[in-house]
Write a structure and sequence with these properties.
There is one protein chain. Strand 4, helix 4 and strand 5 form a beta-alpha-beta unit. Helix 7 crosses helix 12 and helix 8 crosses helix 9. The protein is of the alpha/beta class and 269 residues long. The protein contains 12 helices and 8 strands.
């Protein structure tokens, strides 16, 4: 790996990305980082051997810029970067809801921009990163983004018009599973189990179910039916979930997340 990559606004996800890239073969000396607090920049250097720089220097020096600041801070960052970014630099945005056109309008003409929505399992190399090309990004730019984000999990290319739906489904997705595990743990306590045992039972069940979904090739309906015997315990539980509208609630929740992603794109904080 000879290209220099800069991660700007390096928080937890940015650090996970750096760590994954180093494990995948990038030299720490080819990785630049920026951080709002100097002590955070020093911490990243001491932990990973990467080079802390200012935003302007990152824009001038790196071949690829990965912008990981919060959506509401992106405009201010672009104002700072725009005078220093040559038109041949690849700019990768990890900000929820912000379209590639937002960057293209503020940067040099024909700057290639790629939009990526990843999620917190990047912290354990199990991310789902969804990648879309801006108007001037080529297949080579998309492949480079896949190479970077493939270091921390799986990648999937989609048209940018589908990014808000992907944000709702996988960007926010881990939180829904954590919420479900929390509720099931409380149910286990209600049923008489100690919290630690309830938690262990549910977490391992979740891991096992996820691996079966990934590796079996079976439709989730088929896998559920394999657990659901006539007049048994599982079908009684499923009936209660349906009676309480859990399926409809999930659909409504995902629509709400998608709509919020669209609001962020329109500048509504």
């Amino acid at each position: 790996m000879t290209q220099k990559v800069a991660v700007l606004g390096t928080g937890k996800i940015g650090e996970a990305l750096l760590s994954g890239m180093i494990r995948a073969g990038w030299a720490p000396t080819d990785l630049l980082v920026t951080a709002r607090r100097p002590e955070r920049a020093r911490e990243l250097h001491e932990r990973h051997g990467v080079t802390p720089v200012g935003n302007a220097e990152a824009a001038k020096s790196a071949d690829t810029l990965i912008l990981t600041v919060k959506p509401q801070d992106m405009g201010t960052l672009l104002d700072e970067l725009a005078p220093h970014i040559p038109a041949d630099r690849l700019v990768i945005s990890g900000a929820a809801g912000i379209p590639t056109s937002f960057f293209e309008e503020r940067l040099a003409r024909r700057t290639p921009v790629v939009r990526v929505m990843t999620n917190t399992p990047a912290l354990v190399d199990e991310a789902m990163s969804v990648i879309s090309a801006g108007s001037h990004a080529t297949a080579e730019h998309l492949a480079h983004a896949e190479e970077i984000f493939g270091a921390v999990g799986k990648t999937l290319r989609v048209p940018e018009s589908q990014q808000d739906a992907c944000t709702a489904l996988s960007g926010s997705g881990p939180a829904y599973f954590f919420y479900l595990v929390e509720a099931m743990t409380d149910a286990g306590i209600l049923l008489g189990l100690p919290r630690d045992k309830a938690h262990e039972l549910i977490v391992q069940s979740a891991i096992g179910a996820a691996v079966m979904l990934r590796d079996s090739g079976e439709h989730p309906v088929k896998l559920r039916e394999n657990v659901t015997s006539p007049a048994g315990t599982t079908i009684n539980a499923i009936r209660e979930l349906e009676n309480h509208g859990v399926r409809a609630a999930l659909i409504a929740a995902l629509e709400a997340a998608r709509d919020r992603s669209r609001e962020l794109a329109s500048g509504n904080s």
